[in-house]
Amino acid sequence: MTPDWHEPHGAGFFDNLVPVTKRIPVWFQGDRDHQTIGATLPWLGLDTADCEHLNQFCYLVRTSHTRNNLPPLSALSTFWAAWDEDLSEVTQYHLVMFDWGAYQDVYRTIADDAVNMIDDGDIAEIHRLQTFITMHFFEPSDVVETIGSLHRSLLQLREDHEELLRRFERYREYTSRVMEWIASHDPTMAGPLDLLLRPADLQPEQ
Fold first, then answer.
1. Where is pLDDT greater, at 141 or 194?
2. Residue 71: which residues within 8 A CB-CB, separation 6 or more?
3. According to the model, what pLDDT value does residue 48 have?
4. For 188-202, what is each residue's pLDDT tens digit?
5. Strand order in the sheet with 91-97
6. How far apart are CA 169 and CA 153, in angstroms?
7. pLDDT tier for residue 79 given thresholds of 50, 70 and 90
8. Does 123 or 93 have the greater pLDDT score?
9. What is the mean pLDDT of residues 94-120?
10. Contacts 24+ apart (CB under 8 A), 54-61
């Protein structure tokens, strides 16, 4: 559970609060294999959990390195990333977590450190690459609220769609009558309008 912001607290309380977002630099080596997002897990203290367990309380997404914010919760699945995906300088990653205890553990494990997967020694500058992992915490209630908003939007879209269908039927019926009237007064228009005329249609109006 997150702290109760409404209760009085002693001096220094807010200095010890864990922020709900943290950006972590990741240094990796471009000329090595297995430089994946999953390879960063030991620095986060998550290497003892398998991917199936991780997916129970966190969601991994990727965005362009030029994007400054996390996509909305309702769009996260569009940006889903696999744990075995190779790191890239033009991609940044977001670890969205829904368990406050797990989030605090990861936050305190990484502290003010960075993830450094570059070998010791004289590594060429061209192979020293950097990206970022940003941790985010969301309450489960945020997910419920997002689902509720999407459901309301879906209901509204269905209602709008039904109204458009009703209008379409009215306009189609009206257009059909206009086309029939035109063809009955000018039989040469029957072909372009894709109409079949009956002899009665060609009789002059009484």
1. 141
2. 61, 63, 78, 79
3. 84
4. 766 666 666 555 555
5. 58-64, 91-97, 128-137, 21-29, 115-116
6. 24
7. very high
8. 93
9. 89
10. 54/83, 57/97, 57/98, 57/99, 57/102, 58/95, 58/96, 58/97, 58/98, 58/99, 58/102, 59/95, 59/96, 59/97, 59/98, 60/93, 60/94, 60/95, 60/96, 61/93, 61/94, 61/96
Angle 11-12-15 (CA atoms, 0-180°, nearest 5)? Answer: 150
β-strands 91-97, 21-29: how paired? unpaired
Q: Decide: 202 and 187 in contact? Cβ < 8 Å.
A: yes
Q: Which residues pair with 172 in a beta bridge?
A: none
Model pTM above 0.85: no
How many residues comprise the chain? 206
Among 124, 116, 105, residue whose Cα is nearest residue 39 = 116
Residue 171 has pLDDT above 90, yes or no: no
Q: How far apart are CA 84 and CA 190, in angstroms?
A: 63
What's the pLDDT score for residue 5? Answer: 47
Other Cβ atoms closer than 10 A to 54: 18
The one-character DSSP state at 11 is T
Query: What is the enclosing helix (H) or strand (E) of 179?
Result: helix 140-185
